[in-house]
Description:
Elements lengths: L1 E4 L4 H13 L4 E5 L19 E5 L5 H10 L4 E4 L6 H6 L2 H23 L3 H6 L1 E7 L24 H20 L3 E6 L2 E2 L8 H10 L4 E4 L5 E3 L1 E2 H14 L5 E4 L4 E3 H15 L12 E4 L14 H7 L7 H14 L1 H7 L3 H10 L4
Parallel strand pairs: 1-2, 1-4, 2-3, 4-5, 5-6, 6-11, 7-10, 8-13
Antiparallel strand pairs: 9-12
Bound molecules: nicotinamide-adenine-dinucleotide (NAD) and 2'deoxy-thymidine-5'-diphospho-alpha-D-glucose.
Amino acid sequence: MILVTGGAGFLGSNFVLDWLAQCDEPVTNxxxxxxxxxxxxxxxxxxxAGHRFIQGDIADTELVAGLLSAHxxxxxVNFAAESHVDRSIHGPEDFVQTNIVGTFRLLEAARAxxxxxxxxxxxxxxxxxVSTDEVYGSLDKExxxxxxxxxxxxxxxxxxxKAASDHLVRAYHxxxxxxxxxxxxxNNYGPYHFPEKxxxxxxxxxxxxxxxxxxxxxxxxxxxxxVKDHCSAIRRVLEAGRAGETYNIGGxxxxxxxxxxxxxxxxxxxxxxxxxxxxxxxxIVYVTDRPGHDRRYAIDAGKIERELGWRPAxxxxxxxxxxxQWYLDNQAWVRNVxxxxxxxxxxxxxxxxx
Length: 354
Ligand code: NAD
Ligand code: DAU
């Protein structure tokens, strides 16, 4: 059995769905169901005996200890986190609690469980920590992409809390020998992406006739990866990654935000033309920048390719088209997640931006 945490969120639910589609090893899915966790993402698993969902907190050591020992757990894949940079600027406390304290408690539960395993099981056990390229900070235009040895320079409360969690994971290997793996990935996009993040927000706002907010000059660069490619990379690292190692994961798809939004508008113009015949591009507005906004991220994914033979399957164009189509086909999902508390967030984040 593997224990997946945060498996009702964007990445975690994609990972669980892909995992169970590809193998018969059962998954226990521990998720607190914050605003970002959505059991609807997992609706297709209803009645699947290989999936056991538990609502709970990674910081609840007793709960985690019980889950680990109730089954022969051979790996933990930790997706659980507060993940939105803008929310971390408005309220950093939850980020410290889940990303730092939560990861620490999860590591403690894992260490206690791992210590009691037989020698062979101890050797085979893995704690895979899913992290981000944001821990490395911001790149200038000409800088080389982030490698695994790049100095940590996190700039937001979100990335600082993720950096702290990465350091804890590293320390548990160095000090206690816990067989950990860390992955640092670039920006993902795809199905089940909560519409507070750029790509799903733009699709949702475009279709709703609302403005498409571009922070600052829109020339900030992100390195985009289709979520299913991230999931395949994590499976590969879990299967063959060397304990104690870090693997950077990225799509080699560096794009300025404005170009991403233009591309989305062009795909929407084609797949779902507006009734008035105007391009969705006309809904673009420039708004006040994100405080401390990182200018550029870029991942050097050479290590995972050389050592583990992983490469992404999708290009940005094919992945983006699939994503837009998914949102068009799943408007009921979008309606459900954008009701209620989501509206409060949109008010908070955008009302003071000029
Ligand atoms: P998300 O916000 O969509 O999902 C996070 C999930 O964790 C939610 O289901 C939430 O309910 C759950 N959760 C939050 N606090 C919890 C707690 N204390 N205990 C148990 N569950 C809890 O995030 P995501 O985009 O799926 O990201 C998942 C992980 O991948 C995060 O660690 C993030 O830092 C990392 N990451 C994300 C991206 C990206 O582009 N989305 C890229 C690289 C790395
Ligand atoms: O790099 C990996 C990270 O990618 C993950 O660690 C995070 O969990 C994930 O949320 C994502 O962080 P970003 O801050 O890059 O993603 P977001 O979608 O919020 O923003 C992408 C870019 O678009 C960023 O430069 C800010 C900009 N943006 C975002 C929003 C929501 C806008 O211009 N307008 C917006 O309304």
